[in-house]
Amino acid sequence: MESFMNMKVKTLGIILGMAALALAQEPAAPAAQSAEPAAMENSSAEAVSPEAKAENAQAELAAETGEPVIPAAEPQDSVAPAEQQPVAPAPVAEAQPAPAAEPEQYGEMPAPVAVRGVDASAKPYYDEPAPAEPKRTRSSSRVVSEAIPMKFTFGGQGFLGTHALYANDWDFEESYSGIAWKAGLFAIIPLNEYMMGFKMGVLFDHSEASASYTYGSDLSKEANVKFKMDRISVPLLFVLKSPYSNFTLDFGAQFSVPVQDQFKYSYEKTGTNLTGDDRYVRGNADMIDLDYRSSMDFALLLGFTIKANRYMSFDIRYECGFSNYYEGVQGWRINELTSNSFLLGISFYAL
């Protein structure tokens, strides 16, 4: 009981202490409130600008003197209000160059669209190199192969054609015709890179020519004449061609040395009562042994060569003789004979 009373006394003491503390703090609030108007008055007094004080002084002076008050001009701020200041334009971004397009990568590409005559399912080949363009000459419309050089070469060749003997004064009243063939070796020596060369050769030359003619008072008699000769011929030719052509022009001279020259003849005798073989006279003369044959023949040559490939060519050649074959022959009109030949040939190249 006694403890319970002590607790009540303690509680009452605490309540009284708290009330005294509250009463002690309540008067301070009005003081604070009264301090606020004073502070405001001081601040308003301090807030009066020098211009207002000057105006009040002028008003007091005007009241004493009776002159009107002239308001002072308001000073203009040197700095314009923020809303009146010009707005600087926003910086324009410089145009940036477009990035370079990356090279197109050819990978797995879709099949091309079907076109007339084109298989749309076929896969294009992009990695194949483009074919090299052929070389062109000055004329862009003409496509030709590479230049063909003139190079050293040699080989063998043969000719076959017609052969004729006639008077060197170009009188063809008495002429003899036949065949001729030649075979031997040749070589070509270039004189420049593409267009000019020199061709020489050594050929075995065989020719035959014959003729038949009538004689006698009534032209009832017949005579047969045949020439058969072998020679060693040495043609010396200049060769001209275009840089891009396999066609060549050959021209030059030929020197020939006779090895064999047979003159065969047969004719009918003019006597009476002749029968059988007695009616004919036959003979065979070696014109070299009889010293009727000239020691050398001279002719001009003109020819063309078409090269088929690296190892073979076809030749055309014309020979025109300018020297007399025979001299001092008695009884026969053959002292002024010369020859010409038209030949076709083929050549084989070792290089």
Q: What do these coordinates show?
A:
This protein has 351 residues and is of the alpha+beta class. It has a domain of 192 residues: Porin, CATH 2.40.160. It is built from three helices and nine strands; from the N terminus they run H-H-H-E-E-E-E-E-E-E-E-E. Strands 1-2-3-4-5-7-8-9 form an eight-stranded antiparallel beta barrel. A hairpin with a 5-residue loop joins strand 2 and strand 3. The longest helix has 24 residues. The chain is rod-shaped, with a radius of gyration of 68 Å. It starts with a helix and ends with a strand. About 9% of the residues have low confidence.
Shape: rod-shaped
Integer average pLDDT: 75
User: What's the CATH C level of the domain at 158-349?
Assistant: Mainly Beta
Quaternary structure type: single chain
Distance between the termini: 153 Å
- Helix content, binned percent: 10-25%
- Give a count of the beta strands, DSSP E runs of length 2 or more: 9
Q: Give the H and E element order.
A: HHHEEEEEEEEE
Task: Please name the CATH architecture of the domain at 158-349.
Answer: Beta Barrel
CATH topology of the domain at 158-349: Porin
Number of helices: 3
Residue fraction in strands: 35-45%
Largest sheet: 8 strands, antiparallel, barrel
Give the structural class: alpha+beta
The Rg value, from CA coordinates, equals: 68 Å
- Uncertain regions: pLDDT < 50 for 5+ in a row? 26-47, 75-83
Supply database-style keywords.
alpha+beta; Porin; 351 residues; 38% strand; eight-stranded antiparallel barrel
